[in-house]
Amino acid sequence: MAFEIGVMTFGEITEDPVTGAIPSPGRRARDTIEQAKVADQVGLDVFGVGEHHRTDFVGSAPSILLAAAAEQTTT
């Protein structure tokens, strides 16, 4: 039986546990794209972005984040 391994995010904007800093939505979106790049580099099968319509999430338009990630990844 085949299965896929991957990660999923909503692009939540949360406080850094070390510094206490809260990233801007733009920074969090760039970080999400970077996470997709790393997932691609290490060979994960899936990188998912969930949709959420709150101010503490950047995933209100997952197709846009995934399109930006697709430009930066090979698979």
Count the helices. How many? 2
Mean pLDDT over the residues: 94
* Widest sheet, order of strands: 1-2
β-sheet strand percentage = 5-15%
SSE order, one letter for each helix or strand: EHEH
Radius of gyration: 13 Å
Number of strands: 2
Helical content, roughly?
25-40%
* Contiguous uncertain segments of 5+ residues: none
* Terminal CA distance: 22 Å
The largest β sheet comes out as: 2 strands, parallel
InterPro entries: Bact_Lucif_Oxidored (IPR050766), Luciferase-like_dom (IPR011251), Luciferase-like_sf (IPR036661)
Protein name: LLM class flavin-dependent oxidoreductase
Organism: Actinomadura adrarensis
Keywords: Monooxygenase, Oxidoreductase
Q: How would you explain this protein's 3D organization?
A:
- With 75 residues, the protein is α+β, with helices and mostly antiparallel strands.
- The protein has one domain.
- Helix content is 37%, strand content 11%.
- A two-stranded parallel sheet has the order 1-2.
- It comes from Actinomadura adrarensis.
- This is LLM class flavin-dependent oxidoreductase.
